[in-house]
Amino acid sequence: MKLSIWRINGRAGTVQAGSQSGIPPLIRRNTVYIALVQALQGSGGQLAITLGALMVVRLHGSASLAGIGGSILGAGRFAAAYPTGKFTDAYGRRPGMVISLLVSLVGGILLGASIALSSFLVFLVGMAILGLGVGAGRQLRVAAVDMYPPARRAEGLGYVLTGSIVGALVAPMVVGGGELLARLTGADAIGMSWYLLQVVLAPAMIFALLVRPDPKSIAANLKHYWPSYQLSAKTGDATSAAGLSTFLRHRPKQVAFVCYATAQGTMSLMMVMTPLVMSESGHSVPSISLTVAFHVLGMFGFSIPLGRLVDRVGRKPLLGVGLAVEAAGAILVPTTASYLVITLGLFLVGIGWSAVNVSSTVLLADTTSPEERGRAIGASDTFAGVFSIVMPLMGGFVVDMSGLMAIGILGGALALAPFPALVRLQERSPGQYGETDSSAG
Fold first, then answer.
1. Is residue 74 a contact partner of residue 382, using CB atoms and an 8 Å limit?
2. Closest Cα to residue 58, out of 193, 191, 197?
3. What DSSP string describes 139-155?
């Protein structure tokens, strides 16, 4: 039977052509559980975006700080990324998932309590804690790629990311349930929504505990779980002592970091600025909400086919295509007042980001051992977090100085910025790279 050959961190391995058959039952079961955790936990972040500004106005009495909840949420995600990766590298992915859910539970309770106590301070603390939980929850991507061999790694990630679509639907249900309970009990609808979130996160905790064995353990013993997968003797794997400085000296990781950071920055910029573009063009709030829904569909709805494409044609080609599509979408958004054109532009930003997210995550998984993978992906999230905070702030200044069209130019330029680094990446076949450090090639 024909074999495809790959190499990762000194391990040479083969995957039989027949490996495109079904996923082993244990891997399939764990993938479903992790996808469910992704879906349910993601509803907390969606709820914060939906209710955050309303809560600020209610508790602070002014709209001047309406965006502070989103900023604190983003800062919490930024702060949690690398430490969580370090923790899961040492103790496993499942403990990281459980802790992220517990932290999210505490954050949700405090946010509900902030309404009951009419306390802006409690709101700020609750949002910060929720941000830490949401940020820690991004390690679910690591758990997904851990369980699949390189030839199917992006496909496995695609299954888990698709769960985010369900999460986007759960949040409105939580808000609707909170309003119903408020009418029945006389309580505040926003506060009840946050308390109801606990009902959503509780089963997520159960699903996280059902993930067995730990995905990190599966990654270290892939041949035991994938009958068609074969791995030769160890010939110089990465060590658990690797850290940020080591990652930054490795060219494939450099490319993954810069591509994902700029893709995240572009998306954050366009998500914040597109409603302003649409409002200036005379579109209603429900219309803007529908456009954002199409954007979320682009972000996660095509994760599985994109993952399979990444496995088939390679990480580098999809990074390039994703960045180009995202740039085209960013430029398209402010060029016209047409609702369809603006919606198409934001949808393209979402699907371009999705291709970069899947490709860069898998590239990092390809070039790391299970003992350092959480830190590598956590570092990528940290760099991306900086861009997601800075770019929306920069966008406001750009609009003031140069108008809305400048937003599209800025977003497009940012998305295309990694191409000089990307073209130097040598990917001989999907998951097999030529460079080992920054001076290679």
1. no
2. 191
3. THHHHHHHTS-GGGHHH
Nearest in space to 190 (alpha carbons), one of 68, 45, 53, 40: 53
User: pLDDT of 347-374, one tens digit each?
Assistant: 999 999 999 999 999 999 999 999 999 9
CA distance 441 to 425: 9
State pLDDT tens for residues 218-251: 999 998 999 877 654 333 334 445 678 889 999 9
What is the set of domains in the chain, with CATH numbers? Answer: 22-221 (1.20.1250.20), 240-425 (1.20.1250.20)
C-alpha 251/C-alpha 360 separation (Å) is 13
List phi, psi (to 5°) of 136: -65, -35
Average per-residue pLDDT for the chain = 86
Q: Cα separation of 178 and 182, whole Å?
A: 6
Tell me the residue type at 220: A
**Side-chain half-sphere of 238: how many Cα atoms within 13 Å?**
26
How far is 279 from 273, CA to CA, in rounded Å? Answer: 10
Task: Give the CA distances from residue 246 to residues 145, 249, 376, 392, in Å, rounded to whole numbers and listed in that order.
Answer: 21, 5, 10, 30
Computed from CA positions of residues 83, 145, 140, 267, in that sequence, does the dihedral angle turn out positive or negative?
Answer: positive
The whole-angstrom separation of Cα 312 and Cα 362 is 13
Residues of the chain above pLDDT 90, percent: 60
